[in-house]
């Protein structure tokens, strides 16, 4: 039996906790042997979303194979937030010193830093907190814009949904990729992402503008990802001239419609390759004629 113990911090994000907890509890349905428990400095821990969470104030004695997870809390800053007692932080440190693995989600990385576990290690956190984490722990190497980082039995993730990616990775390592894939399917997770995948997808990075014409062009490209779309066709569908579409699209996204489609295709192909597809199969699945173009775009 492997215990997965979540250390709950006041203001904890529900998804930071619930995502990994769901992964490990679902893994039990596929033959994994996990027991989940929840501890904190008080018996009732308020979540940021307003749901009070029950916790044990008794910090258990952990075995080497047990996993300790610190979910993140909602805050625009790290300093002065995430209250944890010296006793709890010493317990986190002691588990790692005895050979155990410690993980964090989002702002939870700050708790690991206060426990002295980030010095000399690679780590990450939510992109809004990376600068501050770097300032607070100058001896750590903060890896930017990735989903999770594992270094010396310390695993840190970007936050919110990336906690699911972190937990699936740990299940894959401990129980095999087939169990992790089965858990991802039962959780209806789109794809099990690699740790070095970017925190923001192509869609998120280039959809933050407010130009409705460009949004309509993007809708067409995304719904017809594998089609050969001409600029003339996109212009016709939006009721604009080709020149106007090019100008508006470039101003809103910093790229042409063709480059946007290529970026989406490459990102989708990376997911397929990560799930075991060959480069050739992935290239053809996303709309490239063969793997040569995909290889060129990936190399950039």
TrEMBL record:
Pfam families according to UniProt: DJ-1_PfpI, HTH_18
Alphabetical list of InterPro entries matching this protein: Class_I_gatase-like, DJ-1/PfpI, Homeodomain-like_sf, HTH_AraC, INH-QAR
GO MF terms, alphabetically ordered: DNA-binding transcription factor activity; sequence-specific DNA binding
Xref: PROSITE patterns: HTH_ARAC_FAMILY_2
SUPFAM superfamilies given in the database record: Class I glutamine amidotransferase-like (SSF52317), Homeodomain-like (SSF46689)
Alphabetized UniProt keyword annotations: Transcription, Transcription regulation
Positions of the HTH araC/xylS-type domain: 215-300
Keyword Transcription regulation: yes
Domain of life assignment: Bacteria
TM region positions: none
Presence of the UniProt keyword Transcription in the record: yes
PANTHER family from the UniProt entry: ARAC-FAMILY TRANSCRIPTIONAL REGULATOR (PTHR43130), HTH-TYPE TRANSCRIPTIONAL REGULATOR RV1931C (PTHR43130:SF3)
Protein name: AraC family transcriptional regulator
């Amino acid at each position: 039996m492997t215990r997965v113990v979540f250390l709950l911090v006041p203001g904890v994000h529900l998804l930071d906790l619930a995502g990994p907890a769901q992964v490990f509890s679902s893994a039990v349905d596929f033959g994994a042997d996990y027991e989940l428990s929840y501890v904190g400095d008080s018996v009732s821990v308020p979540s940021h979303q307003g749901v009070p969470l029950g916790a044990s104030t008794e910090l258990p004695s952990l075995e080497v194979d047990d996993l300790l997870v610190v979910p993140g809390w909602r805050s625009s800053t790290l300093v002065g937030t995430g209250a944890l007692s010296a006793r709890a932080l010493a317990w986190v440190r002691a588990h790692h010193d005895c050979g155990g693995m410690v993980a964090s989600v989002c702002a939870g990385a700050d708790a690991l830093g206060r426990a002295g576990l980030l010095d000399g290690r690679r780590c990450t956190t939510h992109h809004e907190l990376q600068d501050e984490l770097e300032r607070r722990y100058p001896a750590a190497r903060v890896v930017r814009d990735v989903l999770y980082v594992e270094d010396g039995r310390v695993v840190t993730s970007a936050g919110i949904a990336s906690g699911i990616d972190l937990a699936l990775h740990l299940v894959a390592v401990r129980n095999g990729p087939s169990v992790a894939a089965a858990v991802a399917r039962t959780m209806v997770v789109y794809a099990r992402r690699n740790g070095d995948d970017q925190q923001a997808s192509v869609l998120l990075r280039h959809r933050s503008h407010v130009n409705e014409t460009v949004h309509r062009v993007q809708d067409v490209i995304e719904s017809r990802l594998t089609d050969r779309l001409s600029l003339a066709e996109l212009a016709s569908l939006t009721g604009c001239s080709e020149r106007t579409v090019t100008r508006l699209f470039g101003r809103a996204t910093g790229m042409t419609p063709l480059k946007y489609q290529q970026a989406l295709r490459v990102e989708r192909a990376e997911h397929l390759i990560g799930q075991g597809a060959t480069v050739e199969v992935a290239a053809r699945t996303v709309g490239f004629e063969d793997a040569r173009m995909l290889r060129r775009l990936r190399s950039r």
